Amino acid sequence: MKFCSHCGQPVTVLVPEGDHRPRHVCTGCGAIHYQNPKIVAGCVPEHEGRILLCRRAIEPRLGFWTIPAGFMENGETTQDAARRESFEEAQAEVEVGSLLAVVHVLHADQVHVMFRARLPKPEFGPSPESLEVMLCDEADIPWAEIAFRSVDFALRRYLEDRRAGLERHHFTAIDLRPRDAR
What distance in Å separates the CA atoms of residue 78 and residue 15, rounded to the nearest whole number? Predict the structure, then answer.
C-alpha cells in the first residue's frame, strides 16, 4: 500500500501507539489501514456417495482439481458463500450442511472454511471458472492432482467422517446482520 484510501496521502509502515504490530498509517490524516486475512468458503458436495469436483479453469493451479470454493463477499454468510461458489464454479445447487474444516493458510493470509454439502440432484456443469466438473467415487479421486492442501485436508476429513458414520448435514448458525436488513 502506498497511498491512503481515505485522503490519498502517502502511507508509512510503523507501529501505531497502543498497537504491537507494524501497520500502514497515513502521513496526512493518520488513518490506520489494517490488512486482515481473507476468508475462502467452500464445501464438499455429495450426491449418492459421490463427491463433486471441479477442474480449475483459472490460476492459481489451472487444470488441477478442487471442490467448489472461493472468496467470501461482504454481506454474505460463509454458508451463503459456499452455496454461491458451488453455483459459480459447478452450476450446482447445493444444500450446505455442517462445518467440516477450518484451515489457516498463513502464507496467503487466508482462512479457508469448508462445509459438508448435499447435491440433491445430479445437475452440474463447467463454468468460466471450471474446465470440467464431475461426480467422483472415493476410489477415483485424483489425489495427485488436487489443487490445494486445504482441499486435500477437507476431502480427507470428509471421507474419514463418512467412514466413521459422522456425516452431519445439519448446521446451525446465527445471523448478526441488523434486524431491518434480514
Answer: 32
Closest CA to 71 of 110, 129, 104, 126: 110
Query: Cβ atoms within 10 A of the Cβ of 33, count?
Result: 15
Q: What is the DSSP letter of 140?
A: G
For the segment 143-158, what is each residue's pLDDT rounded down to a tens digit?
999 999 999 999 999 9
> Which residue bears the cell 454439502?
117
Partners of residue 104 on adjacent β-strands = 111
**Which structural domain, as residue segments, surrounds residue 23?**
1-35
**CA 82, CA 148: separation in Å to the nearest integer?**
17
CATH number for position 146: 3.90.79.10
- Residue-wise pLDDT tens digits, 46-72: 999 999 999 999 999 999 999 999 999
- Whether 91 maps to a domain, the answer reads yes
